[in-house]
């Protein structure tokens, strides 16, 4: 499945580069986001780790805030562009969705390490950037 997803993503990127279909790209992105929700919820209810649950909550928060920023920017673009300071909703969407992808992948790495019995824990780089640290069991020969 990972190979298929990689090839599908690469093919979609190439076709989108040449065809520039805006609506299909947006619908495709929304569909992929919606496909992630059931799996993330399943893992969220299965894990007992508070720090991992916090990552999942940050995933939902950044997804929601990013979507709101994008929608406000799209709907009120003409009004916002006349303000003295433009809030740059689309730019904030990119920042928040980047964080969203990071939180989702970090949470899924934690869940996968937990499934493999590697004793994962969430630690923070520089006190704020979460990452997964695993303690693999020693191999017995």
Automatic annotation (TrEMBL):
What subcellular locations does the record give?
A: Membrane
User: What is its cofactor?
Assistant: Zn(2+)
Entry keyword annotation includes Transmembrane helix: yes
Transmembrane regions listed in the UniProt entry: 6-37, 58-76, 91-111
Listed GO MF terms:
hydrolase activity, acting on carbon-nitrogen (but not peptide) bonds, in linear amides; metal ion binding
Question: Which keywords has UniProt assigned to this entry?
Answer: Hydrolase, Membrane, Metal-binding, Transmembrane, Transmembrane helix, Zinc
* PANTHER family on file: ALKALINE CERAMIDASE, ALKALINE PHYTOCERAMIDASE FAMILY PROTEIN, EXPRESSED
Similarity annotation: Belongs to the alkaline ceramidase family.
- In Swiss-Prot or TrEMBL terms, this protein is called Uncharacterized protein
Its ancestry begins with: Eukaryota, Viridiplantae, Streptophyta, Embryophyta, Tracheophyta
């Amino acid at each position: 499945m990972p190979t298929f997803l990689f090839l599908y993503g690469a093919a979609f990127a190439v076709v989108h580069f040449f065809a520039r279909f805006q609506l299909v790209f947006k619908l495709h992105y929304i569909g992929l986001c919606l496909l992630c929700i059931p799996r993330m919820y399943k893992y969220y209810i299965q894990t007992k780790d508070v720090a991992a649950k916090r990552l999942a909550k940050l995933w939902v928060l950044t997804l929601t805030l990013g979507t709101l920023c994008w929608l406000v920017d799209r709907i009120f673009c003409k009004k916002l562009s006349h303000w003295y300071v433009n809030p740059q909703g689309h730019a904030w969407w990119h920042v928040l969705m980047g964080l969203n992808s990071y939180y989702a992948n970090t949470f899924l790495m934690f869940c996968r390490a937990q499934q493999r019995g590697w004793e994962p824990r969430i630690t923070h780089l520089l006190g704020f950037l979460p990452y997964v640290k695993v303690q693999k069991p020693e191999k017995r020969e």
